[in-house]
Amino acid sequence: MQKERIILGIDPGTQVMGYGILRVLDNKPSLMAMGVMQLGKYGDHYLKLAKIYARVIGLIEEFLPDELAIESPFFGKNVQSMLKLGRAQGVAMAAAISRDIPIFEYAPLKIKMAITGNGRAAKEQVAYMLQKILHIPDENMLPQLDATDGLAAALCHFYQSGITAGDKKYRDWKDFASHNQDKVRK
Questions:
Q1: CATH number (domain holding residue 16)
Q2: Which of 32, 64, 131, 153 is deepest in the core (most CB within 10 A)?
Q3: Tell me: the pLDDT tens digits for 117-130?
């Protein structure tokens, strides 16, 4: 019997929220969906938070994820921006909590490292690697990199939760790739 697992990944934001949904079947991840929520058109910060909550609930009801992987806020110089981003993350987390979905937070550096092998990789590099790893056709790639950032959080969680081939655990993405050339398309 094949074991299925659904991971919802979110890149929180108060202007654009990105998300990606991975389906893992027999320990092989594949893209179910990815997208963005444009929030810039809403002037009121609290309305943005309500929209984030509603959209995450909608994604949960549509895709029935087993876990939520979310990018944690990074430290910046603008305290107000940090607070707003933290609220957006908290609202997305509250939606998952309300549906008893376990939450896993990952720093942006950790996500980039898991996907590209470089914690300082550009968003475009992350998108490119996701396209190759998950075999996403060009026409399914979105121009908004927030979508691939959400998907990257989901794939990072898949890797961090223990990629196994048989019972073998891998140290990191590079170790997995070197031992599984048949699963990694260049």
A1: 3.30.420.10
A2: 153
A3: 999 999 999 999 99
